[in-house]
Amino acid sequence: MAVVLIGALLIVAGVVYMAGAALWRGRLSDPAPARAAPDRSTPNLATPGPTLEPRRRGVGFLGLSQNWPGLLMMAVGFILLLSVVVL
């Protein structure tokens, strides 16, 4: 039973690590600098200009070199879960 719990925890920890690593690498969006004249006030809009969608991030954050600790945790957890099923 302990092997199953450790395996499940390692899989969850690997997923959380990879999600956290992707978020810690940089900003999700690059807000545009304010181009309004200093004497003019900017309107209060319900949805400000920049969104949370990255402009030029690509899928480089999914690379193996950045995510190997999370992938390793998930692989060890998967092996532990499989070892319980096989034995």
Brief synopsis:
The chain is mainly α and 87 residues long. It is built from two helices and no strands. 53% of the residues lie in helices and 0% in strands.
Question: In words, what does this structure look like?
Answer:
The chain is mainly alpha-helical and 87 residues long. It has a domain at 1-26 and 62-87. It contains two helices and no strands. The protein has helices at 2-24, 64-86. The radius of gyration is 21 Å and the shape is elongated. The protein starts with a helix and ends with a helix.
For the secondary structure, the number of strands is 0
How much is the average pLDDT?
Answer: 75
Q: Give the proportion of residues in helices.
A: 40-55%
Number of distinct helices: 2
Strand content is: under 5%
- What's the alpha carbon Rg, rounded to whole Å? 21 Å
Structural class: mainly alpha
For the sheet with most strands, the description reads: none
Low-confidence stretches: 30-34
- Give the oligomer, counting copies of the same chain as homo and different chains as hetero: single chain
**Distance separating the two termini:** 13 Å
Order of helical and strand elements: HH
Overall body shape: elongated
Biased composition (Low complexity): 31-40
Region (Disordered): 31-52
Transmembrane segments: 68-86
Keywords: Membrane, Transmembrane, Transmembrane helix
